[in-house]
């Protein structure tokens, strides 16, 4: 349907904003987690989870404006098949300018209340399960500790865990970012993170929070494996 409406390039809508978001969010996230590792705070499972959550929250806050623009651009399509609110930005720079003109600096961080818990949970699960899974296969001597296969195995296990943990937060953050707003920048559909969860749960059931989990895994699975693989190898270098 996307290809018919927007052509093959439609599948890459918002790519520049997506790359900007990943660079900002993951750059900050992995840097903060590396600091925690170097400080010896991730030695036990609780420390790894806490460090991953804090690192994810900081990264999500820094990257929030780029995620906002990415969501707006990806949702735009022909009126005949449009789903959700259409913001009609011409480009990534035009989107930033339009949001800033209408709602100021604060407007660029609209939806951040959904992004911070989303990435905090995902980051905590991702980094903690990656380290645990990698150590687990190495302790059983299935794979060598310094091998790329051990990193790959840890990333594959982590990808499944992240998709299951993040799916509800993905649904909530997408709706908060993409909802229409009034002149004051207040959402017209949801008042905030908790209100969005309650509305989805009451109107669509608890399974409504897991809408699109297949697509979530198809994105997060390879993303988790590759990002953790390159992060691990680059750190060793």
Automatic annotation (TrEMBL):
<dbReference type="Pfam" id="PF00153">
    <property type="entry name" value="Mito_carr"/>
</dbReference>
<keyword id="KW-0677">Repeat</keyword>
<keyword id="KW-0472">Membrane</keyword>
<dbReference type="InterPro" id="IPR051508">
    <property type="entry name" value="Mito_Carrier_Antiporter"/>
</dbReference>
<feature type="repeat" description="Solcar">
    <location>
        <begin position="43"/>
        <end position="136"/>
    </location>
</feature>
<feature type="repeat" description="Solcar">
    <location>
        <begin position="1"/>
        <end position="39"/>
    </location>
</feature>
<dbReference type="GO" id="GO:0005743">
    <property type="term" value="C:mitochondrial inner membrane"/>
</dbReference>
<feature type="transmembrane region" description="Helical">
    <location>
        <begin position="148"/>
        <end position="169"/>
    </location>
</feature>
<keyword id="KW-0812">Transmembrane</keyword>
<feature type="repeat" description="Solcar">
    <location>
        <begin position="146"/>
        <end position="237"/>
    </location>
</feature>
<feature type="transmembrane region" description="Helical">
    <location>
        <begin position="212"/>
        <end position="231"/>
    </location>
</feature>
<keyword id="KW-1133">Transmembrane helix</keyword>
<protein>
    <recommendedName>
        <fullName>Solute carrier family 25 member 34</fullName>
    </recommendedName>
</protein>
<comment type="similarity">
    <text>Belongs to the mitochondrial carrier (TC 2.A.29) family.</text>
</comment>
<dbReference type="InterPro" id="IPR023395">
    <property type="entry name" value="MCP_dom_sf"/>
</dbReference>
<keyword id="KW-0496">Mitochondrion</keyword>
<dbReference type="InterPro" id="IPR018108">
    <property type="entry name" value="MCP_transmembrane"/>
</dbReference>
<keyword id="KW-0813">Transport</keyword>
<keyword id="KW-0999">Mitochondrion inner membrane</keyword>
